[in-house]
Amino acid sequence: MKKVLSIVVGLLLLTMAIGCGSNTSSDKSSAGKGDKQIVMGFSQIGAESEWRTAHTKDIKQAAQDAGIKLIFSDAQQKQENQIKAIRSFIAQGVDIIAFTPIVETGWDTVLKEAKDAKIPVIIVDRDVKLNDDSLYVAKIGTDSVTEGQNAFKWIDEYMKKQNKKPRDGGDKFNIVVLEGTVGSSVAVRRSQGFTEAMKASPDASKYEILASQTGEFTRQKGQEVMESFLKSYGDKIDILFAQNDDMALGAIQAIEAAGLKPGKDITIISIDGVKGIFQAMIEGKSNCTVECNPLQGKLLMETAKKILKGEKVEKNVFVKEGVFPADTAKDTLPSRKY
Ligand code: GYE
After folding, report:
1. Among 43, 44, 50, 51, which residue has the most ligand 1 atoms within 8 Å of its CB, making it the best to mutate?
2. Number of domains in the chain
3. Same domain, yes or no, for 281 and 302?
4. Element (DSSP H or E) covering residue 11
5. 105 and 177: one domain?
6. Is residue 325 part of a domain?
């Protein structure tokens, strides 16, 4: 009797196991069939800098890796082109929209249109000012205020360590600033962080900002504006704060053309951490770069997938960044990814 019972129980367990197994596999295959490819519309600003090129490349690669179809649109530095692109993404019925806002303001109307069409929006890299923050689901970017603060703090320490004296024999170090795109969150906040840190420093009275002007985040414009700074203030300039590496690289050419030594006569700090500035630092032509991380693609794709699955995501995420002085450049350059 016992034997018969154990055979029956055994058979019963076997049937259950087979049943479970087949259930699991049929669940999987039906989920697979139901999964349609996610389509993301992405509006990029343009290709103004080495940083931007790396950002675009990373986003395209990450979309491919994540199996997301990316509709990529290049706005050629114009907000109106970005607005047009977003409207066309809405018309095409994409699953999700992501974009890097060239400037902070002017997005309320078009983002309301996306919300009305029930298409979630992710803001990437730069920030926006909106009347209604429910118009976007998540923001992935970099901390421009901290970058500006770090730039000043590094300069302040460096001038002391090197025992630098103002070139004009006065009692203040004169600073010129090459700002980024006018109206962009990055330019506004890097300026803010830099001046806040300067005012908060016990050495505040040792520094003066002589001039601050946009170089539009490009090498060409950085060079032109630095030329004009040199014409107006020549031997007074001690420090250049370039709000991106490309403008610093342009300025280095202008400084050399004026017969001065970049990195020595004029101490240079910039932001981004692209390979070009590491090379310049190795050559002794620049002094420090504050990293701004363009590798945001993976996080963007992961966030998009979560949003579309209805999972909760963080509203604001900053990516990690460091500070790289010239004496670390040689060892660091081989491992730089952009
Ligand atoms: O620093 C600059 C670029 O938005 C953080 O834009 C980005 C900035 C970056 O063109 O090089």
Report:
1. 51
2. 2
3. no
4. helix 2-34
5. no
6. no
Domain that holds residue 73: 39-141+294-319
The residue from 251, 273, 292 where one domain ends is 292
**pLDDT digits over 139-186, tens only?**
999 999 999 999 999 999 999 999 999 999 999 999 999 999 999 999
Q: How confident is the model at residue 10 (pLDDT cuts 50, 70, 90)?
A: very low
Angle at 107 between CA 101 and CA 108, to 5 degrees: 150
Q: What three-state secondary structure class fits 147?
A: helix
Residue 189 predicted with pLDDT over 70: yes
Match 């300026």 to its residue by tokens: 191
Residue 245 lies in a domain: yes
**pLDDT of 19-55, one tens digit each?**
333 333 333 333 334 578 999 999 999 999 999 999 9
Report pLDDT digits (tens) over 100-126. Answer: 999 999 999 999 999 999 999 999 999
Distance (Å) of CA 195 to CA 151, 207, 209, 246: 10, 10, 9, 21
User: 69 C-alpha vs ligand 1 centroid, how far in Å?
Assistant: 25
Q: What atom in ligand 1 is closest to the CA of residue 142?
A: 5
Enter the pTM of the model.
0.88
Domain with residue 233: its CATH number is 3.40.50.2300
Residue 239 forms beta bridges with which residues?
Answer: 175, 267
What is residue 34's predicted lDDT score, i.e. its pLDDT?
52
Task: Compute the distance from residue 247 Cα to the ligand 1 centre, in Å.
Answer: 11
Q: Ligand 1 site: residues with CB under 6 angstroms? A: 48-49, 51-52, 125-126, 142, 186, 217, 244, 246, 271-272, 292
Tell how far the Cα of 167 is from the centroid of ligand 1, in angstroms: 31
To test the pocket of ligand 1, the residue of 140, 144, 244 to mutate (highest count of ligand atoms within 8 Å of its CB) is: 244
List the beta bridge partners of residue 214.
Answer: 179
Q: Say whether pLDDT at 8 is over 60.
A: no
Q: How far apart are CA 259 and CA 273, in angstroms?
A: 26
Atom of ligand 1 nearest to the CA of 184: 4
Domain check: are 287 and 160 in the same one?
A: yes
**Residue among 226, 272, 221, 229 nearest 252 (CA):** 226
